[in-house]
Specification:
The protein is an alpha/beta fold. It has a single domain, classed as NAD(P)-binding Rossmann-like Domain (Rossmann fold, 3-Layer(aba) Sandwich), CATH 3.40.50. 46% of the residues lie in helices and 19% in strands. It has eight helices and nine strands. The strands form two sheets. A seven-stranded parallel sheet has the order 3-2-1-4-5-6-9, sandwiched between helices. A two-stranded parallel ribbon has the order 7-8. Helix 4 runs parallel beside helix 5.
């Protein structure tokens, strides 16, 4: 299938969950992708899963040194980009009374500062007509006590979407976001290593969702591809992919 033949994409946080699902859809339809991650096991499994159409790069989305190196790697590999998908994220879910300084700093370094400078460094590589997509979250607009710091970082990225959309219009680049609700990805296990707590929270989130279930990573990936290739008159927007949780 060659729907995206000749297209190129860089996906930060592309070795699991939403990022990996998006990379797989792109590769299956003919695109070339560069994905980043930090886990060695994740990097190796992604190389095997995506095959020769993908470059899999170890990169810390919160490190400005790594962001500079990523820009050079993308330029050398592709020359120009059609999609920059900022999906890497750090999340520590806890009541604000239990939020640590280290966790707070990591979330802002990766989710806000890293995202800002990644766009700054890689935007010059994006083709006219290309796109930047952010992964935000419904916690950027809803008061969710367990997500106080994480939600604040996503509110920052939502602001970046609007600002970058305005700033990059002269280059013909659109900037949008997908805003996932509760999605069944490996990050649940990382955020909640206690299996009983994870199962309890999953049940609560499913019961509280209008669709009575968690979403799938592939459902978010479809929205990313829609914003990238089909929504050509859309910029500065955020599409909720949350089973209606933020809307009804």
């Amino acid at each position: 299938m060659d729907q995206y033949q000749g297209k190129t994409a860089v996906i930060l946080g592309g070795t699991s969950g939403i990022g990996l699902a998006t990379a797989k859809m792109l590769v299956e339809r003919g695109a070339r992708v560069l994905v980043t991650g930090r886990s060695q096991a994740g990097l190796e499994s992604t190389k095997a899963e995506l095959g020769e159409s993908a470059l899999v790069v170890s990169s810390d989305a919160g490190s400005l040194k790594d962001i500079d190196a990523l820009a050079e790697r993308a330029k050398d590999a592709f020359g120009a980009l059609d999609l920059l998908f900022l999906n890497a994220g750090a999340a520590h879910f806890a009541p604000f009374e239990q939020t640590t300084e280290a966790g707070y700093d990591e979330m802002f370094d990766v989710n806000a500062k890293g995202a800002f400078f990644t766009v700054q460094k890689l935007a010059p590589l994006i083709n006219r007509g290309g796109t930047v997509i952010f992964t935000t979250a419904i916690s950027n607009a809803k008061g969710m006590p367990m997500f106080a710091a994480a939600g604040a970082t996503k509110a920052a990225t939502r602001s970046f979407v609007r600002t970058f959309a305005a700033g990059l219009l002269p280059q013909g680049i659109r900037v949008n976001a997908v805003s996932p609700g509760p999605i069944d990805t490996p990050n649940w296990g990382k955020a909640f290593p206690d299996k009983d707590m994870a199962a309890q929270l999953t049940g609560q989130l499913s019961d509280g969702n209008p669709m009575k279930r968690l979403g799938a990573a592939e459902e978010v990936a479809k929205a990313v591809l829609f914003l990238t290739f089909d929504a050509t008159y859309t910029t500065g927007a955020e599409i909720p992919v949350d089973g209606g949780q933020s809307q009804i």
